[in-house]
Write a structure and sequence with these properties.
264 residues; alpha/beta; Rossmann fold; ProC C-terminal domain-like fold; 5-stranded mixed β-sheet; 12 helices; 12% strand; elongated
Length: 264
């Protein structure tokens, strides 16, 4: 995800010379430097001193250690920290950084790798309007962004868009399998499922999805029969249950990260 953001920023006109990537792995830094011609460093504190915006693109399990190291630097009060670590609460990040920090939490999804992502953002009260605009401009380079007023709503964002790509992959997988059962070979069924999903997604960007569905659902036609079958088998109820399960699990994971188990 960090590589996607770097690529998106540069593709949208941000000077590579203004970007510094930090990592403990020199091989990773070398690859980033060669790909994007950015500055790299293994010294987090020096890089943070020179930055106005710090992107925390680390695994949730190491976020605490990274933030506590950065807390050793007392020049961070008005810097903007943007976290893309799933499930790590703003309050925990803030505490680990020393408190009273400007923090934006983000929930991106994997299509950001193609600059087709959907990202939910939440800003704590310390974040200024200018900083909010800066955070949004960065995440806009890899797709669309939406703001939520309550951090808990990022769990809902996770359930809809964060995990959402997998739902569509799974439906395409099922559609392919259904095509094979109806007599199509694997290659043909997969090609049709993929292209149909792509075409439908493009059309959905241009018009109301309910109207689109109505237009292609002719009375007593083939599509109507499929839709009736979906409805009779409570597809809507299944989607509600699945997204609630994802949302609940997001909340559970955040709680686990906030209160890691202790070894007795």
């Amino acid at each position: 995800m960090a590589s996607s953001l770097i690529g998106g920023m540069i593709a949208n006109g941000i000077d590579a010379a203004r970007i510094v990537a930090c990592d403990i792995l020199s091989e990773q830094l070398e690859a980033l430097q060669q790909q994007f011609s950015i500055h790299t460093s293994t010294d987090n504190l020096t890089a943070v001193n020179q930055a106005d915006i710090i992107m925390l693109a680390v695994k949730p399990q190491v976020m605490q250690a990274v933030c506590e190291q950065l807390a050793e630097n007392n020049q961070q009060k008005h810097k903007l920290f943007i976290s893309i670590a799933a499930g790590v609460h703003e309050s925990d990040i803030n505490r680990w950084l020393g408190g009273s920090r400007c923090i934006v939490r983000c929930m991106p999804n994997t299509p950001a790798l193609l600059q087709l992502g959907a990202t939910g953002l939440y800003a704590n009260p310390e974040v200024s309007e200018i900083q909010k605009q800066a955070a949004q401009s960065i995440l806009d380079t890899v797709g669309i962004t939406v703001w939520v007023d309550d951090e808990i709503l990022l769990d809902a964002v996770t359930a809809i868009s964060g995990s959402g790509p997998a739902y569509f992959f799974y439906f395409m997988e099922l559609l392919q399998a259904a095509g094979e059962k109806l007599g199509l070979n694997t290659e043909t069924a997969l090609k049709l499922a993929r292209q149909t999903a792509l075409g439908a997604a493009h059309m959905a960007q241009q018009d109301d999805i309910v109207d689109l569905r109505a237009r292609v659902t002719s009375k007593k036609g083939t599509t109507e029969q499929a839709i009736i079958s979906f409805q009779d088998n409570n597809l809507g109820k299944l989607v509600d249950a699945a997204t609630k399960a994802a949302c609940d699990r997001a909340a559970e994971l955040a709680k686990e990260l906030s209160n890691p188990p202790t070894n007795n």
